[in-house]
Amino acid sequence: MICILASYYGTGSSILSALQDLFWLSKSKVEKQLQIISVLQWVLTFLIMGVACTLILMYILCTDCWAIAALYLAWLVFDWNTPKKGGRRSQWVRNWAIWRYFRDYFPIRLVKTHNLLTTRNYIFGYHPHGIMGLGAFCNFSTEATGVGQKFPGIRPYLATLAGNFRMPILRDYLMSGGICPVNRDSIDYILSKNGSGNAIIIVVGGAAESLNCTPGKNSVTLKNRKGFVKLALRHGADLVPVYSFGENEVYKQVIFEEGSWGRWVQKKFQKHIGFAPCIFHGRGLFSSNTWGLLPYSKPITTVVGEPITIPKIDNPSQREVDFYHSIYVDSLIKLFDKYKSKFGLPETEVLEVN
């Protein structure tokens, strides 16, 4: 009888253990699906939300609900210059749970190396661009990686193409995360009329750099990118080099050689529209073994370097700009060399500066 009871309770315990394992397995699968959904919504936002919302608004104008679209357009006219004046960030949106799932999909991590003074303003140079700048978005336009806790009193503003803020709905969505246009009016306002403790994140390489991003390659477009240094000098904003290890690993891209027809088309788009179309792919929605728009689940680690103290010079000379630009380039290379082996790169890896 004792043996039977022992066998019974033993079997019951085993069943309970199996059910617990099944429960946790299901929870794990649910979390993975939520991670995929969170990343997919941002990819679609990046690629089509602006155009889709514009077309929907035009369609509504032609229906019985035209008054709704008309009211929004009236608001759009009234609110047109808000993006140039620091935008309209929402801590509620920045703290959405969806961004934590977004973070965990890769995962994405933010590494702080030095404190930042709230009495200063900053320009972060973010490298490399990658295809979509996923690390830049997650780290500085959401609170998923704890930027507000790591840098208390600092307000990050991720700068992106000004054309995005001409798109209905998309502009409001971007502003809610603290994203602003990467133009002189917007940056001048934040650095001169918005107090101190501001940090503008500029993806310095821009569209030109995105054309050369591919897994296994660490290169930045920086040699002739000096406008951000001039802005820093005019406002006395300290420069902070930022390198995101793994940013280039999450998508595979067809690289067109210089002089090819493909590169010619890309440069024409870049010159006249502001962005360069890339032929790229990630994984599929239901399988990592198929092609699709979802990025690959590769870790992205963003390291924020030591701030470079910049003096305020109203009209900096080219010599002064070149001097501080060279200091910035050296600081970025040192940052890369110091942390490359910690995040999966060999000691022999060299950062290519173009």
UniProtKB/TrEMBL annotation:
<dbReference type="GO" id="GO:0048471">
    <property type="term" value="C:perinuclear region of cytoplasm"/>
</dbReference>
<keyword id="KW-0472">Membrane</keyword>
<comment type="pathway">
    <text>Lipid metabolism.</text>
</comment>
<comment type="pathway">
    <text>Glycerolipid metabolism; triacylglycerol biosynthesis.</text>
</comment>
<dbReference type="GO" id="GO:0050252">
    <property type="term" value="F:retinol O-fatty-acyltransferase activity"/>
</dbReference>
<keyword id="KW-0808">Transferase</keyword>
<keyword id="KW-0551">Lipid droplet</keyword>
<dbReference type="GO" id="GO:0005789">
    <property type="term" value="C:endoplasmic reticulum membrane"/>
</dbReference>
<dbReference type="GO" id="GO:0006071">
    <property type="term" value="P:glycerol metabolic process"/>
</dbReference>
<keyword id="KW-0319">Glycerol metabolism</keyword>
<dbReference type="GO" id="GO:0019432">
    <property type="term" value="P:triglyceride biosynthetic process"/>
</dbReference>
<keyword id="KW-0963">Cytoplasm</keyword>
<keyword id="KW-1133">Transmembrane helix</keyword>
<dbReference type="Pfam" id="PF03982">
    <property type="entry name" value="DAGAT"/>
</dbReference>
<keyword id="KW-0012">Acyltransferase</keyword>
<dbReference type="GO" id="GO:0004144">
    <property type="term" value="F:diacylglycerol O-acyltransferase activity"/>
</dbReference>
<feature type="transmembrane region" description="Helical">
    <location>
        <begin position="6"/>
        <end position="25"/>
    </location>
</feature>
<keyword id="KW-0812">Transmembrane</keyword>
<dbReference type="InterPro" id="IPR007130">
    <property type="entry name" value="DAGAT"/>
</dbReference>
<keyword id="KW-0256">Endoplasmic reticulum</keyword>
<dbReference type="GO" id="GO:0005811">
    <property type="term" value="C:lipid droplet"/>
</dbReference>
<comment type="similarity">
    <text>Belongs to the diacylglycerol acyltransferase family.</text>
</comment>
<keyword id="KW-0443">Lipid metabolism</keyword>
<dbReference type="GO" id="GO:0046339">
    <property type="term" value="P:diacylglycerol metabolic process"/>
</dbReference>
<keyword id="KW-0444">Lipid biosynthesis</keyword>
<protein>
    <recommendedName>
        <fullName>Acyltransferase</fullName>
        <ecNumber>2.3.1.-</ecNumber>
    </recommendedName>
</protein>
<feature type="transmembrane region" description="Helical">
    <location>
        <begin position="37"/>
        <end position="60"/>
    </location>
</feature>
